[in-house]
Give the backbone structure.
Amino acid sequence: MSPAESASPLRTASLWLLAVLLMAATVIYQRRTGPTHPLRGTVTVGGRATTYSLIRSEETVREARVALPDPGVPATLVWRRFPTQDPWTRQAMAPETRDRVGRLEVAGYLPKQPAAGKVEYAVELGEAGAALRIPAGDPIVLRYKGPVSTPLLVAHLSMMFLTVLLGLRAGLGAIFGKVAPRRLMVLTLFCLTLGGLILGPFVQKAAFGAYWTGFPWGYDLTDNKTLLMWLAWVLAAGVAGARLRRREVWSRVAVTAAALAMAVVYLIPHSLRGSQLDYNKVKAGTAAKDAVVTGR
C-alpha cells in the first residue's frame, strides 16, 4: 500500500469495496455468459408453463442427464455428436422423481464421450409433427471434460479470483492515488502466475488431456487470455520497477493499463474456442486423446 493511500483510510476502504464489487460482477458475468453455463428458460405447452435448465457440460465418467420438469406432454431427446453429419438419434424421455421435494421430471441420457467430445441436442415437447422444440434455434452443444480433483480446482479458482480482486484494486489505486501501488501489482502477478500459468495447466490436463493449448501450440482462447493478462502485468512491473520514480505518472499508467487489459479479457466469455474432439480423426483411427483440436 502506498504512503498516499495509508494517509486516507476511508479512501482505501472505499477502493477495496469497489474492487470487491467489480470482482463479483466479473465472476457473475463470466459464469452466466460462458458456453458451459446451463441454458435456462420457460416454455408454455398446452397452457402450462415449464421452467427448464438444460446442461451444457458433463464429465467423461458418466452419461449426461438432460431433464426438465414434467411438461404434461410426451418429451423426446434428439441428439448427435458435434460437429458431425451423424443421423439424429431420437430418445423418448422417461418420468423420474429427482429433486428433494419429489417433483416429477422427464429425463433422457446422452452417451459418454471422450474428453473434449461434444454432443448437440434439443428437446421436443408434444407429438411428432407438432412438437415444440427447445431451444427454438440452434441445438444446445454440450462438451465432456475429464474429472478435475476438488483441491486442484479450488486452488486454481481461488488464485484467479484473487488475481482479479488484487488487479482491479491495483488499477483503482493507480487511478486515484499519487503513486503506483507496487505491492498490489506484485501480488497480482504472483497470483496470476500461480493460478493461471502453473495450476491452470494442471486443470487443463485433467479436463482435456493437454497442459497448454494456447500460443504458440494452439488457439485455446482461455489459455491465450491468461497469457495476455500475464504479459500485461509483467510489462507493468517492468515499467513501474521496485522503487518510486521521480515521475510516477508512467508507473501509474502502466498499472492502470494492465488492470484495464485484465478487465477487457474478462469481458470475453470463458471457455470460448476451447478444446474440441475431432471425430473425423477418431473415425480415421486416431486415438481420442490425440484427436483434440483447439480454437473452434
